[in-house]
Write a structure and sequence with these properties.
It is built from 12 helices and 14 strands. Helix 10 packs antiparallel against helix 12.
Length: about 325
């Protein structure tokens, strides 16, 4: 159902291009887009269904030395079986048995233009009302209950308050632990305590993994603060992909990349965003760096944040 669809894990493709070469048995996790958006390719690459907006962004990123260092390597456009794809680095290729976490960044996950369009066609949506009451029966107003419908702008803004998007500037979208099925039940993970609890369990309470992810997150923040591309775009619906594994022998591996540019929109010429200023309609600010600041703070203090009330920590 569409209610499960926003930005969550949709499908697991149970092989990778590297399975054939190295006999690796990890699943390639689809953490963005709709079912069938990814295809395996050759030499440590994957194909992702082309959208014009993302293609333009990936092409522009090639001219920004800062962005190139924190995004999957882009190998251009490929036409196959009547579809167009972008060819990207397979981010899981360097791992044996990876655990993956998709964190959607920013204080909103819709573009200003989407909100404006939704307002122009202000229809009462029964489907959105049903999604809302499924999560919280008390959320709709008396009038909304009467019509059994809500408007799209009302739904869009409620949805951001439901998770940690509106408050922390990021939300956990999906997790695939190495040895488990994907988990996408994070819609209502909202407080710092809840997010910390989920992330601690995701990294199996491993200090080495925490430090490596923290170091890379700080590196990404420093890189974004220098990037001309980043300053000149409204970055919406983009994720940080956290990947780690613990090989049988040797040290833990961990890395983070910035992925998904399907909603990233250029600003007018000579206009820039600081990505930290509070969003007011018209200023285009997306809260990306505010979210990254909060995510870094959380990783720095991960072991000191008490679990949510009534939840015991899983053993590390």
């Amino acid at each position: 159902s569409a209610s499960r669809s926003w930005g969550l894990i949709k499908q697991v493709v149970h092989w990778s291009p590297f399975v054939q070469v190295y006999k690796k048995k990890y699943p390639w996790v689809q953490l963005a887009g709709h079912s069938g958006a990814f295809k395996p390719c050759d030499n440590g690459t994957i194909l992702k269904k082309l959208t014009e907006k993302e293609f333009i962004c990936l092409t522009r990123i090639l001219d920004d030395e800062h962005m190139v260092a924190i995004t999957p390597k882009f190998h251009g456009k490929v036409d196959k079986d009547g579809n167009s794809y972008v060819k990207l680095q397979d981010l899981l290729a360097e791992f044996d048995n990876p655990s993956v976490c998709d964190i959607k960044m920013g204080t909103r996950t819709y573009l200003e233009e989407e909100l404006m369009k939704a307002r122009e066609k202000l229809t009462m949506r029964k489907d959105m009302y049903e999604k809302m009451v499924k999560v919280d029966q008390n959320e709709p107003t008396e009038e909304e209950h009467k019509f059994k419908a809500v408007t799209k702008p009302r739904y869009m803004q409620w949805r951001e308050r439901l998770s940690s998007t509106a408050t922390l500037g990021f939300r956990i979208d999906g997790i695939k632990q190495a040895d488990r099925d994907p988990d996408k039940n994070f819609k209502t993970v909202r407080t710092t305590a809840e997010v910390a609890y989920v992330l601690r369990n995701h990294i199996d309470h491993k200090e080495e993994t925490r430090l490596k992810l923290l170091e890379r997150l700080k590196e990404i923040r420093g890189t974004l603060e220098k990037s001309k591309f980043f300053a000149a775009h409204e970055v919406i619906g983009s994720s940080l992909l956290l990947v780690h594994d613990q090989p049988e022998e040797g040290v833990a591996r961990a890395n983070v990349w910035m992925i998904d540019f399907g909603k990233t929109t250029p600003l007018e010429e000579n206009r820039t965003l600081d990505h930290r200023t509070l969003w007011e309609e018209g200023n285009r600010e997306d809260g990306y760096l505010q979210g990254l600041d909060n995510l870094i703070d959380l990783f720095e203090n991960l072991s000191n944040i008490d679990p949510p009330e009534g939840l015991e920590e899983e053993a590390g």
